[in-house]
Amino acid sequence: xxxSGQQYSGIKRTWRWFPRLHALGWAAGLFMAxxxxxxxxxxxxxxxxxxxxxxxxxxxxxxxxSHGKTAKDLPQAIAQLGADHRxxxxxxxxxxxxxxxxxxxxxxxxLPESSDPEIRLRLEMLRQRIERAEPWxxxxxxxxxxxxxxxxxxxxxxxxxxxxxxxxLFRQPADTLIKGYRLMEWRxxxxxxxxxxxxxxxxxGKHRFADDDQRLVLTAQNATGKATFPDxxxxxxxxxxxxGGEGGYHVGIAIGKVRALFHxxxxxxxxxxxxxxxxxxxxxNADMGFTPEPDTDCQMRVDxxxxxxxxxxxxxxxxxxxxxxxxxxxxxxxxxxxxxQISLDRSGRAxxxxxxxxxxxxxxxx
Length: 366
What we know:
- It is a single chain.
- The longest helix has 17 residues, at about 140-155.
- α1 packs across α7, α2 (about 55-65) packs across α7 and α3 runs antiparallel to α4.
- The protein folds into two domains: about 45-165, no CATH class; about 165-360, Jelly Rolls (Sandwich).
- It contains nine helices and 15 strands.
- By secondary structure, it is of the alpha+beta class.
- Helix content is about 25%, strand content about 25%.
């Protein structure tokens, strides 16, 4: 029952959130890493192709020269936010968005207020974009993919972190999940199903079962060609839900046997850890400081770290608008089991559909 209580060219990379990537009509990307047993499509090639960026070394060098702006370029770009022509103002705004986000954030914190109202307006828009979307928007992801490919082609034998990722944007429609979805496998109680449509994984909430599970699983074998995930990795995904049945079901991410979950539409969200196999609660429900509203994305991040003495630490961050909930807990191997799978989950009674967008797994996190 529910509710029971690398741096490249001197560019420093700080990742906080993986945002919505609606700007590109890109077909879903696939993980590509040197440990894969079978050759898969390189998501960076697919992504840059859709962005109409050539991927030969010379084209990538030209692109990087024109887009690889650094801190010394920022004051001039900010001044251009007040240019007389709209095209120049827009170009300057987009140029700043392509810069390292943490560098821009720190610069804006100490920037004196401009006397130009146009500059003040656009700087406030920049602050909002940085706080809400963070660096994983389309310009930043394109930049990351281009830098990664260029680095590898200029350093044969080296592997850029952008290659060591699983990226699934759910761009390939599917009417049923019973046979799985691409590299992911379906695990659901009898009579339960889901679909992929409109760039999202949808786990159906209209069913007549109580406390049953729907899970789309990514095994370590399918993702990496190995029996388990590495000792450190990170997952990001956008999660929302349709209205209905608030408090009677939950959504979240499972790592091994442990699920990190919250309750859409329920006051305070009711976050907890539980063991998905038997729904045993490993922590009590916690108030997240905000309520995850229906039809509104929350960004969920889970950092996984294997510790000494067969223990694993899960650090969770859930962002809803400007509100952020953070928690962490250590589990022993009996509780969490081998790190051989992760999954996107909906569990509980009838209610709103669970919606998942833009899953990214970093196997070499910062």
